[in-house]
Specification:
single chain, Heat Shock Protein 90, Nucleotidyltransferase, domain 5, 20 strands, 48% helix
Length: 740
């Protein structure tokens, strides 16, 4: 349950101030008048006057108070008619000027103010038309650049290798979905909150890779550039914090520069490194397989060494001319036995190595129903063949080399049609534990087991036009699977069955109720403005707001009193970088509060008790969130509330949330002090921000991030440009006094 905000009591404040001023002014005027009159009278007359006015003093006080009330009402009326409408209209006008909001300024107040509002609307309309024209010209001019970016995004999405592009500070400015998935597997600290990977725009690649290794690789690239190599690069192998083994290929991003006197003299530009491209391969399994193979080979050599010794001794004995028959036969038996043992050992190692070579073939995760659909279309290209699907489990995911598997299916279908006259086939797919059964089924004539075995080992040929060195057995070995032929006598059917590996994990889906869709399809994630970014050389407090990286977050809780035992039940966060909301990089995690959720709060956040049962506790979630927010400025709406929940857990978790904090509630009060409400919904309405997933942690964080993006230019108009200035300004507002 997120805390709200009370409206600033502007009308009551004005009324109180006006009444106080009116009363003081009337009393002072009456006292001065009385003193002036009394001081000019003789003593006897003054006493008589006092006796006459004494009984009427209460009435005079009432008159004074009535006059004070009239004065206060007058001040309040003047404030509402002239001052308040003017201030509110000025704030709304600044919003319209600083953002893309297209609504009209609502006329209010006096006729002159309404005319001024109309004139502003006319000018704003002309400005919008001019900006639209300029935007269209910019779009036309930048269309080519956008096409190049899209081509790059498409290329990145098609690469099977993980690619990350960084600036010289190691800040990530481009990555593809393969890199995102690989970084997720490499970072156990962020195993929670499926969208919260170590990789992200603006994040440091050194959270995974050793800074000194990368620096050494860049130095080697510079040495090769100095030697005149056309395409300098470097490669190294490193281990991650989770024990994974990475092979990293580093290539430089080069820019041509010619500065100073060299440029004036027309000298050829000099290339310098402006960033680097990393291509990463996780070779942990390959290394383990190679190590196991080496161990097996060493064991084989040791065992063969003893056998060779026995063979050599037996052969030497057999060379003796005086060896009797029984002894010679015994040594011949030793030779046969040791030779047989050596043969078996070599064959066993060879078979294991061949099987491992097959299973190391790169496989892709694929929805089984998609594979069946593609196979059906492929088989129907064969002449005089109809293909149907039968009992296809839509939930089965496979890990396959789809190309070679489709070749094997087409080869078997071609031989069935050409040699046995089969005119209809059925495809069947069922999950069996961690594997799946893909069947090619037909009704009609069958064949012998010997025929099936020959088909299995023959090279694949389809229609006499396409041939491959692959065999069905090779395809099966690539998948580490099995293949057999079977008859169903009851149904008068026969089928070939492929036993295939299932995918280790299905793609995670986000909860539909959050209202946000995260896609790993293109466009990929890039921000080339980061090439110019150089962080870490100036105090964070003195950096401009537009240059900072923000983690915008929100919490849902069991109640509003963290000091009295209320707990977090959900954390949601997103990131803002270079004035843009990075929706793909988000953090969303339910939390088991280890206490009941009050029934009164459930209609607000919609989190039922059973939804948090079995979820990680706050002690497990906070380290992941802390890592997600590393090296950023924390932002929340009414941040004092959310930060109190985090700070109360610091001693128990050993984490310190000492990040700089900005509060959109306070910043809204800074730029719009005359608005009646600074609730999140009210601010979103002023900025015409669509609210999706309100009172979910991630939904509120997304809206808060949009609000922050629109507040930054308005702060700049007030001369607030740096983080230090923003933090000081927000502490001067009325709402900064709220405590939890």
């Amino acid at each position: 349950m997120s805390a709200g905000a009370r409206p600033l009591p502007g009308a009551r404040l004005a009324l109180g101030v006006g009444a106080a001023v009116g009363v003081l002014w009337l009393l002072l005027w009456g006292l001065l008048s009385a003193l002036m009159v009394v001081s000019d009278l003789p003593p006897g007359t003054a006493q008589a006057l006092a006796g006459m006015l004494g009984p009427k003093l209460p009435a005079l006080v009432v008159v004074f108070l009535a006059a004070a009330g009239v004065g206060a009402q007058g001040v309040h009326w003047a404030w509402k008619r002239w001052l308040s409408p003017a201030d509110a209209m000025v704030e709304e006008a600044r919003v319209l000027l600083a953002t893309d909001v297209e609504r009209r300024l609502e006329p209010r107040g006096t006729q002159a103010l309404q005319g001024l509002a109309q004139a502003f609307n006319d000018l704003a309309g002309q400005r919008r038309a001019l900006r639209a024209e300029m935007a269209e010209q910019v779009r036309q001019a930048s269309r080519h650049v956008e096409q190049e970016r899209n081509r790059l995004a498409a290329l990145m999405s098609e690469l099977s290798q993980s690619v990350v592009v960084c600036n010289l500070d190691g800040r990530i400015l481009l990555y593809n979905s393969q890199a995102r998935a690989q970084f997720r597997a490499l970072s156990s600290a962020l195993a929670l909150a499926g969208g919260a990977e170590a990789i992200g725009l603006g994040r440091s690649v050194y959270s995974v890779l050793d800074r000194h290794l990368v620096g050494h690789a860049i130095e080697r690239v510079q040495q090769r550039m100095a030697r005149g190599e056309a395409r300098p690069s470097a490669q190294f192998v490193t281990t991650t914090a989770t024990g994974q083994l990475l092979r990293v290929h580093l290539s430089p991003v080069l820019v041509a520069t010619a500065e100073g006197d060299a440029a004036a003299a027309g000298a050829a530009p000099v290339q310098r490194i402006d960033g680097f491209v990393l291509m990463l391969d996780n070779i942990t399994r390959d290394f383990e397989v190679e190590s196991a193979r080496d161990r097996e080979l060493n064991e084989l050599m040791e065992s063969q060494r003893a056998a060779l010794g026995n063979l050599q001794a037996a052969v030497e004995m057999l060379d003796l001319s005086d060896l009797d028959g029984p002894t010679r036969e015994r040594f011949l038996g030793v030779v046969r036995e040791e030779a047989l043992r050596m043969t078996r050992g070599v064959q066993a190692w060879s078979q294991a190595n061949a099987q491992d070579m097959g299973t190391r073939w790169p496989l892709e995760e694929m929805l089984g129903a998609d594979l069946v659909a593609v196979a059906r279309r492929r088989l129907e290209e064969l002449p005089n063949l109809r293909v149907v699907t039968d009992e296809v489990d839509d939930s089965v995911w496979l890990k396959v080399d789809s190309y070679s598997l489709l070749l094997a299916l087409a080869y078997l279908a071609d031989r069935l049609t050409s040699e046995y006259g089969i005119r209809q086939l059925a495809l069947r797919l069922q999950g069996v534990g961690a594997r799946a059964q893909l069947d090619l089924v037909w009704t009609g004539q069958s064949m012998s087991t010997e025929t099936v075995m020959s088909w299995e080992i023959d090279g694949i040929q389809i229609g006499g036009q396409f041939s491959s060195q692959l065999s069905v057995r090779d395809v099966v070995q690539r998948h580490g699977g099995e293949f057999w032929f079977e008859r169903e006598r009851v149904r008068h059917q026969s089928f070939f069955r492929f036993l295939l590996p299932g995918a280790d994990s299905q793609p995670a889906t986000r909860p539909a109720e959050s209202g946000y869709v995260h896609s790993d399809s293109r466009p990929e994630y890039y921000d080339f403005d980061l090439f110019a970014s150089r962080r870490g050389y100036e105090d964070l407090e003195d950096r401009r707001l537009v240059d900072l990286v923000y983690t915008v977050f929100d919490t849902e809780t069991t109640g509003l009193n963290p000091s009295e035992g209320d707990e977090i039940i959900q954390i949601g966060a997103t990131r803002v970088l270079n004035g843009k909301l990075i929706r793909q990089e988000s953090f969303e995690q339910l939390v088991d509060p280890c206490r009941p959720i009050p029934a009164a709060s459930i209609p607000i956040h919609g989190i039922q008790p059973e939804m948090v049962q079995g979820q990680p506790t706050i002690d497990q979630v906070l380290p992941a969130f802390h890592a997600f927010a590393n090296e950023t400025v924390l932002v929340a709406h009414n941040a004092a509330f959310d930060m109190r929940f985090l700070q109360l857990k610091e001693e128990r978790t050993g984490l310190r949330f000492d990040h700089p904090v900005l509060d959109t509630l306070l910043l809204s009060a800074v730029v719009h002090p005359n608005q009646e409400s600074h609730r999140l919904e009210a601010i979103a309405e002023r900025f015409e921000i669509t609210v999706i997933g309100r009172h979910t942690a991630l939904g509120d964080a997304m809206v808060t991030a949009e609000v922050l993006i629109r507040l930054i230019p308005l702060l700049a108009e007030k001369g607030i440009h740096t983080l230090r200035q923003a933090r000081e300004a927000q502490q001067q507002t009325y709402y900064a006094r709220l405590k939890y």
